[in-house]
Amino acid sequence: MFLAVRNGFARSVLVTFLTCMFLFQPLGSIDVLAPSPVFAQSIPYLSQWETNMRTYGSLHCVLGTLDQVYYDAERVYYQIADYTGDPSWLNCSQLAETVYRDQYVLPNNGSVPGHWNFTTGLRLDAQRTADAQSKTAAVLLSQHAAFATDGTPLAWTQSADYSREVAYAVVSYIDAQALGEPLRQRRIDLVTQAYDHMAQWFVRFAWPGPWQQSPQETIRLAPFMVGLTAHTLIRDWEQTKDSRLIPTLRLAADWMWANAWIPSAQAMWYEFPDQGQPCCQASGPAPDLNLLIAPIYAFLYRQTGETKYRDEGDAIFAGGVAQAWLGGGKQFDQNYWWSFDYVTWRSAVPAAADAIAPAVAITAPASGSTVSGASVTVSATASDNVGVVGVQFTLDGTNLGTEDTTAPYAIIWSTTMVPNGAHTLTAVARDAAGNRTISAAVGVTVSNTVADTMPPVISSVTAVSVTSSGAIITWTTNEPADSQVEYGRNINYGIVTPLDTRLVTVHSVMLIGLAARTPYHYRVKSKDTAGNLTKSADFTFKTTSSTADATRPPIALTAPMPAMTIISGTVTVFGNGGILA
Q1: What is the DSSP letter of 69?
Q2: What is the CATH number of the domain that holds 522?
Q3: Same domain, residue pair 425 and 486
Q4: Cys-Cys crosslink for 197: which of 25, 163, 415, 529, Cβ 3.0 to 4.6 Å?
Q5: Mapping DSSP to helix (H, G, I), strand (E, B) and coil, where does residue 228 land?
């Protein structure tokens, strides 16, 4: 193998020579590579991927500049050595190590920008060669690289704009643990934050453009950045089996294939919206980045057995191999950074179709409990052999809110929206294969105080026992209420009786001190225990005279005269009060 070739002309000659060597030598003379030929041959463009790996791997096997080892060249060359079984490639990893570790990481005590935090190559070197300097460098990066330091506010990386820095920090923690460092709480926190970055892209759609569904949290969606985050979450899952992974990757893979894949270009667009143009339109295709994305699909194929992920991944892989420009060290490294994982997962026998349904149980409220109010938490636990996609709560067989796609699974239930009495809660968990499980039912009793907003209904208003100076006003209500009367000589009333606070349905209020032979207007008022007040229409009555006339008038008969003889006919009788009969 040719090493440390710096002259540009010499490198061009080398590339030509190596290409011809691999194209024209007998197939039997090529190193036998790791994957089984039966499976490997089914991967489109695999042989070209291998040829490019050898040709451009040799080209970039130099003691070059820092930018040429970006995307962890030491890791890349360790993987090439493993894949080919040729230890001479390890010389290239040592050249990359000299540039990155010795000339950059150690002189800066690990304090490098977050996007330069590459620890896997150093971890591999420390594990395989027991080089203490490589272990030291990896640990320093996990402690001092930007955004990896304990105490760095999580708010600084909350936006998916920092997804790459979070992804690299988490990998540095994983590598440091492999070298004997303890688990850090920050690893757990940043893994959760990485899952939220995926949610910003594919659940809340919190980026500008026609897909935006919530307030902006990040400036763009870049599929290759999704690949970097997916790589980290898979590395974490390999140790934790985090149930969030498979549903999250499915969501990302399905959306990108449906919306970001450009069939005519055999590539994903670079980003949306294109940061170099007025909002909002997609950038052009970026086949150089395909191999940062394709492993997501191979992993899903390996875990689920769904052939759509195999076929979609193959298209992405083939487009990247056929079109990627590998003339720069950085571009070569990014194409071989984790495409070895693509080949491994794609070559393996996929998992059988998932026929196992999730397990699910409601954890709150307790069965038989009484609930009330507008903020009752309904929660459940759910697990699956592959991964739970979501949990849908139901109330009396009807969906309660929307499906919760993120653990812990819970919703807030306003019990004021249902009648008091017995109700049944269940939780329905589903996995990515469509298997569903309904939890055991939980019976609860809703008991809310129903707010009374209806005023009493007044009827049968009348004035009785009217005298020259008083009257009694009576009425009825349909519920217990207090009693009061407004009255006066006109419609403005002006006088109000003292409030009778007794709660009754048959009401009686006495009016006194009225003027004789005077018309009065009145209306009645009643208020129930909830404070609802109602008033009647206007009514009237008239008081009587002040003194009753009980003296009979004196009568003196003036006609006919005494002893008068009446022959026949009609006789008119007069008294001193007028005609009597």
Answers
A1: G
A2: 2.60.40.10
A3: no
A4: 163
A5: helix
